[in-house]
Amino acid sequence: MRSCNSVAENIKPSGIRKFFDIVSEMPDAISLGVGEPDFDTPWHVRDEGIYALEKGRTFYTSNSGLAELRAEICSWYKRYEVNYNAKSQCLITVGGSEGIDLALRALINPGDEVIIPEPCYVSYVPCVSLTGGKPVTINLKNENSFKLTEEELRAAITDKTKMLILSYPNNPTGAIMTKEDLIPIAKVCIENDLYVISDEIYSELTYGGQPHATIAALPGMAERTIIVNGFSKAYAMTGWRLGYVLAPEKIAGLMTKIHQFAIMCAPTTSQYAAVEAIRNGDKDIAEMRESYDERRKFLMKQLEEMDMPAFEPLGAFYIFPCIKKYGMTSDEFATELLKKEKLAVVPGTAFGDCGEGFLRISYAYSIVQLREAMGRIKHFIENL
Question: What is d(CA 229, CA 242) in angstroms, rounded to the nearest whole number?
Fold first, then answer.
């Protein structure tokens, strides 16, 4: 038999799914490992999807997606002080993950370097590798609240650097970057003629009165930034598999061309439901965000009482506590916790080597589950 693609063969499986698969077959286990809202999709959104099916709207849409949905997205994103043309700069994708893959395939040539600050979402490094590009990681620091600094970015740039991937609010750390934080990063990108993929899937989930800021809104950045967002997190629509991209016209056109041959179009039923979500879903987002905030504060207090240090996350729905003082690797800690207490969390190394010594705990679960889970962690560390 001939060999398969060597890059695909050498990609490591997701460290998140490993623990999810084990816990799914373990009675009485609790999982805080998956980044999925525990809320049901709001009824008015589900109703719109049902209505679309009842009306027989089961056809292909245009490759770019429903014109009505693209118009709503561009209008909605004006709240972040950016303007996009719905006809030529917006593409509906199968989740945000497809948007990331399309952007990389449209822009990266073999040998191009892509800077990826870590810890980060698990798909960035593999997707860069599959294009023939070279992932160049930056180890973000807890003492900097896991924010990318100008100095770190400059030190990583070479004459082969073509792109930076930003992911704020961040998975797994919960870190955010404000407009003031992004200004020096934008300056470096312009000086070095870098593209930026800005993964903003958690844009609506920020806390403490700090609104989301997009780097695309800064002077000189819209023409070099690809915004990736979607409906999974803010609207509790993970299974609907719907995302979108906002990008300069030429880049959006290239991405649409790849999407046309690989996917055809995003799910039609999901697109009709998404029109309703984006038009009338702000109240739903506010209610879910308030609940996540309560859970966030609960976990911070519990971890503090256990003397398990964790910087305060201001976005997404994850907390990233440090477990270095227990003398175990992240994988060892997570494995033993699952075996002895039937509680699944994700080792920090699933998000890059610099995640060693940390765990990712998702608080997209009920207070009841979180309270029980914290009790199990407390019992575990007391018996180490």
Answer: 9
